[in-house]
Amino acid sequence: MIPGTFDYHRPTTVESAVALLLQLGEDARPLAGGHSLIPLMKTRLSAPEHLVDLAAIEGLRRLEHVGDHVVIGAMTTQHAVINSTLLTDLVPILRETALVIADPQIRYKGTIGGNCANGDPGNDMPALMQCLGASYQLTGTGGHREVSARDFYLGAYETALAPGEILTEIRIPVPPAGHGYGYEKLKRKVGDYATAAAAVVITMAAGTCTSASIGLTNVSETPLWAAEAGRILVGSTLDAATVNAAVAAAEAITNPASDMRGPAEYRTKMAGIMLRRALERARVRATV
Amino acid sequence: MTKSHIKVTINGKAVEALVEPRTLLIHFLREQQNLTGAHIGCDTGHCGACTVDMDEMSVKSCMTFAVQANGAAITTIEGVANADGTLSALQEGFRMMHGLQCGYCTPGMILRAHRLLQENADPTEDEIRHGIAGNLCRCTGYVNIVKAIQYAAAKINGTPYQEAAE
Amino acid sequence: MNEQVKIDIDRAERTEKLQGMGCKRKRVEDIRFTQGKGSYVDDLKLPGMLFGDFVRSPHAHARIVSIDTSRAKALPGVIAVLTAADLKPLGLHYMPTLAGDVQAVLAEHKVLFQNQEVAFVIAEDRYIASDATELVDVVYEALPCIVDPFKSMLPDAPILREDIQDKMVGAHGPRKHPNHIFEWQIGDRQATDDVFANADVTIKEMLVDHRTHPSPLETCQSLASFDKVKGELTLWGTFQAPHVIRTVVSLISGLPEHKIHVIAPDIGGGFGNKVGAYAGYVCSVVGSIVLGVPVKWVEDRMENLSTTSFARDYHMTTELAATKEGKIIGMRVHVLADHGAFDACADPSKWPAGFMNICTGSYDIPVAYLAVDGVYTNKAPGGVAYRCSFRVTEAVFAIERAIEVLAQKLGMDAAELRIKNFIKAEQFPYHSALGWEYDSGDYHTAMKKAMDAIGYTSLRAEQAEKREAFKRGETRELMGVGISFFTEIVGAGPAKNCDILGIAMFDSAEIRIHPTGSVIARMGTKSQGQGHETTYAQIIATELGIPADDIMIEEGNTDTAPYGLGTYGSRSTPVAGAATAVAARKIKAKAQMIAAHMLEVHEGDLEWDIDRFRVKGLPEKFKTMKEIAWSAYNAPPPNLEPGLEAVNYYEPPNMTYPFGAYFCVMDIDVDTGVAKTRRFYALDDCGTRINPMIIEGQVHGGLTEAFACAMGQEIRYDEMGNVMGASFMDFFLPTAVETPKWETDFTVTPSPHHPIGAKGVGESPHVGGVPCFSNAVNDAYAFLDAGHIQMPHDAWRLWKVGERLGLHG
């Protein structure tokens, strides 16, 4: 499998990168880790005439605790996420999720920005970002704008990115200390996309759920934020009836494709099962 | 298409070359540099037969363009033997524990194990299995690959390793 | 130290030094492989070498209206574009298959499966060749296709093979329909029907061994270099059977066989994928002959999975008849075999369904009848023996699943039912109802050892508790215990019934001892990872008393190696291993004459002692093999020609019949359908063990492939004939994380007819493993009256079983 021809650009600043992308238009694609794009190019399902490699841009690997947020530069690799004590202390679900993405080699190269920006419903980070209430900093020639992860995904490979824009930073509100979390992913083997996966972050107080946020991976054309399912949980003790209702609400918003991972009805049910299991882990982990 | 000029260090040797942007790193290594140890197995980034070490990362060289490696330091299987030409602890471990059969996945597997041991000098069996999960082997069922890596870890750490290959 | 102890120590040291049979000799191959110095086909580079790439059909069945190569030819760097129109004048647009059919090299009037080869682009490098494939314009007119083999012979089915439409007698007899390939029957039909009509208990189950693919990590590839001046062709390729390829190339190209040099260098796994001849090989050869420069062809993974050599696709209606006490009294099997668009099965020529008639298994079944119908569909051709002797995995799956179905119907324990029906040790050699003579076996001993090792009784007790707990709603896991007791048939084979294209399935060894006592030996087989360079040397070391490290084994170069039929069907040890021993014994006989001359005694006064001939009763008077070798070249006895070498072409008197007892313990998550293998125990009996380390390695690998096949690996087609999941994303090859841990064990029942008693082992774990996994899954659900659950047992399919049984609330 051989990719088609293209011209290669390696800008060193975000400004020059976005200027190039705007100038080259639809024939250009930004290149981060490349592990989604290059396979598509090798099968010639994608044939960009220009690749704008973001690897040489300083400042896209920021990893900081700023106020009540953590800020992660788009070119931060999954490997770096896994090994960051800052992130593991403040937002441990990031590490739990990154560890079930692809395989070790791909995690060295694959970036959190690429995973979030390219709009592949199979990617794991987008649903997690929706669960965490993260926002993306999108940068174009006119400067930056902020878009919530919950508003970013429009369809399969369709996002709120405007021509010439790239995702440069991710801002994640730090969940309260003592929060419970869980990312549960059903996959056929290491390296596979999810048959279904669920991200859950909750807080508990005196045995009652005080907040709940749920993201679902690869069970629709976009990642799903299961807002209604989360609302159902809040105020409950996470008793069986409430959990059942939340699972039903989450399953109701799925619309998976039938593929080699299984028929649509299976994947919908697995979204529910993953949610149950992630929620149970979150409940056990929640300290209040 | 314009060719790109790249400078890389391969197995400690500085190399300069002109490459087409679309030239995959695996083809650059195998065809331009005649380093045929790394192999292509799946073309889609799943098998890891093409794994090389690049700037202290295990990288699938068939999922990487040679231009992306500009400025990088690369180690291939041809560069892992000891300076005196004897087999490295990992190479020896694979032989002693029968961690290979057809040999096709072996260069990628050894390079991956090399980086794993750099990051985790004394991995558990579970850590090894997860650590090599980006490398497929069709012959061994992994049992003896795990042992080979344990053997190498023990040898590097100067601790005894008793388990014999079955 | 007394004298006897000294002698014993001396003998032990000399034996140890040989690194002969029975020791865990480390592999000589690994020195190069661990350093990246293996030499595989795509590592080869020749001056002026060009690259070929295929234009392939997007349709499963379509008429080719036109092919326009002009845009591709205009691309700079493109040297030629071949189509059927170019091959036809050379008579090369079709090639013969091993099964007596023909297969299109490049499609002429129509395409018959998706990704079929339509044109071959030759360019300066593989990048340009790939670009040019997109510039060949082919106009197709889509035709209705057949995906379901049960629809192939319907009266209104579209006719697939118009090229043989009127040929109603095929290579294996009459054809019942234009889409029918053959019907093959064996056994006593009437007697079997009579038994079934009067039996206490019968079972009948449709058992599907689904379509999959051997997928070695290295794909199929070739490099052809034609020397126009000498008129000689050198062909390097991924060939499990290089000599057969040479003969085939000679027959189809018209080049004299001595001017064809076929070389199989290191091969990155075969598993049956690299037995056949493929369009890519032919096109690289034609390209090189036409252009006079070397042409290389390298398959990518999608091409590999979707075009070269599928395996299985057997739909087996399997019936057993038994007494109410559980004595099996008859077996009846009908197989519908989906062979795809061309019959390219790699079986011995007289065996269109391979050795499917081993399907009576390890049991003493008095009568049986088997019929196999092969049909064409719009799928890739192949039908190779994926890590098994020909169709033996299918056969063993049929009997080992069927016996469990019978056990359930009888309400008997599945292990007990097997033991009750085993062929007894004293019955060997045993003549089976379907025509085989089993050479040896001791099934009861092996089964008992295995059951003790796994703790069978307590496993069943634990399972009973778990089932109760499940019924009470205390667990969502089901526990299954899988059993498989398989008998393989390997080592094809005797000339009376085994040939490939008329060449008897012997194999060969040529051993040459150099004056200094080191050795080169060449074989007709070809290792693809089995470690032949290590193990053949061990046989010679033990036979001739020369250290294995002083013996070089060479395979794969058809100019130097003696003619052999190659490595597949676990035939290397049974056939070429035997040839090696016999050739070594010829040398030993001559060495004895030389030693007698050197020691000035009669031959009969000498006895062999590890690495030397010594005078009986005078152990201090001896000549080592090394000394004898020197003498053979320096001062041979007056009536003896100099030199010390021998060749043997070994025609086996019978197959060998390895067997084994496998147990699997599995826990299935009912809510997701995910199955986890808790334990897997494999006891193998492959007769004499040459290198236990390598045997265990073969078992590990075979079990891993069996696990993959049973638990998810498949080549699936949609109703349009589109092949689905032809990449390692979907095609299930387990990583180190999914792969279970394996426990291995053995018994030793030597083959009585093999010179060293060895039987072959590389494929046993695959053959025995597949039904063991499937039985574990089926056993888990059996108490819920689930009926037979078809493979592959991937998570969604098992979840569907739970849905059907109402287990999800």
Automatic annotation (TrEMBL), chain A:
Q: Name one GO molecular function term.
A: FAD binding
Is Signal tagged as a keyword?
A: no
Q: Where's the FAD-binding PCMH-type domain?
A: 1-177
Query: SUPFAM superfamilies recorded for this chain?
Result: CO dehydrogenase flavoprotein C-terminal domain-like, FAD-binding/transporter-associated domain-like
| Keywords associated with the record | FAD, Flavoprotein, Oxidoreductase
Under the heading SMART domains, the entry gives: CO_deh_flav_C
Q: What is this protein called?
A: Carbon monoxide dehydrogenase
Origin species: Pararhizobium antarcticum
From TrEMBL, chain B:
Q: Which PROSITE patterns match?
A: 2FE2S_FER_1, 2FE2S_FER_2
Cross-referenced Pfam families, in alphabetical order? Fer2 (PF00111), Fer2_2 (PF01799)
InterPro entries per record: 2Fe-2S-bd (IPR002888), 2Fe-2S-bd_dom_sf (IPR036884), 2Fe-2S_ferredoxin-like_sf (IPR036010), 2Fe-2S_ferredoxin-type (IPR001041), 2Fe2S_fd_BS (IPR006058), Beta-grasp_dom_sf (IPR012675), Diverse_Oxidoreductases (IPR051452)
Where does the 2Fe-2S ferredoxin-type domain start and stop, copy by copy?
A: 4-80
| Oxidoreductase is among the record's keywords | yes
Q: Sorted alphabetically, which Gene3D superfamilies does this protein's record hold?
A: 3.10.20.30, [2Fe-2S]-binding domain
User: What Gene Ontology molecular-function terms does this entry list?
Assistant: 2 iron, 2 sulfur cluster binding; metal ion binding; oxidoreductase activity
Protein origin, superkingdom: Bacteria
Task: Could you list this entry's UniProt keywords, alphabetically sorted.
Answer: 2Fe-2S, Iron, Iron-sulfur, Metal-binding, Oxidoreductase
Which CDD domains does the record cross-reference, listed alphabetically?
Answer: fer2 (cd00207)
Q: What is this protein called?
A: Carbon monoxide dehydrogenase
TrEMBL record, chain C:
Q: Which reaction does it catalyse?
A: CO + a quinone + H2O = a quinol + CO2
Q: Does the keyword Metal-binding apply?
A: yes
Gene3D superfamilies found in the cross-reference section: Aldehyde oxidase/xanthine dehydrogenase, a/b hammerhead, Aldehyde oxidase/xanthine dehydrogenase, molybdopterin binding domain
Keyword Oxidoreductase attributed: yes
Cofactor dependence: Mo-molybdopterin cytosine dinucleotide; Cu(+)
Protein keywords: Copper, Metal-binding, Molybdenum, Oxidoreductase
Superkingdom as given in the UniProt entry: Bacteria
Q: Where is the signal peptide?
A: none
Task: Quote the InterPro entries the UniProt record gives.
Answer: Ald_Oxase/Xan_DH_a/b, Ald_Oxase/Xan_DH_a/b_sf, Ald_Oxase/xanthine_DH-like, AldOxase/xan_DH_MoCoBD1, AldOxase/xan_DH_MoCoBD2, AldOxase/xan_DH_Mopterin-bd_sf, CO_Mo_DH_lsu
Domain Aldehyde oxidase/xanthine dehydrogenase a/b hammerhead as annotated: residue spans: 35-144
Single GO molecular function: molybdenum ion binding
Going by the record, the broad EC class of this enzyme is oxidoreductase
- Could you tell me which Pfam families the record lists for this protein? Ald_Xan_dh_C, MoCoBD_1, MoCoBD_2
**Coiled-coil region:** none
Q: Which PANTHER family match?
A: ALDEHYDE OXIDASE 1-RELATED, XANTHINE DEHYDROGENASE
- Tell me, in a sentence or two, what this protein's role is: Catalyzes the oxidation of carbon monoxide to carbon dioxide.
> What binding partners and quaternary form does the record give?
Dimer of heterotrimers. Each heterotrimer consists of a large, a medium and a small subunit.
Task: Indicate what this protein is called per its UniProt record.
Answer: Carbon monoxide dehydrogenase large chain
Species for this entry:
Pararhizobium antarcticum
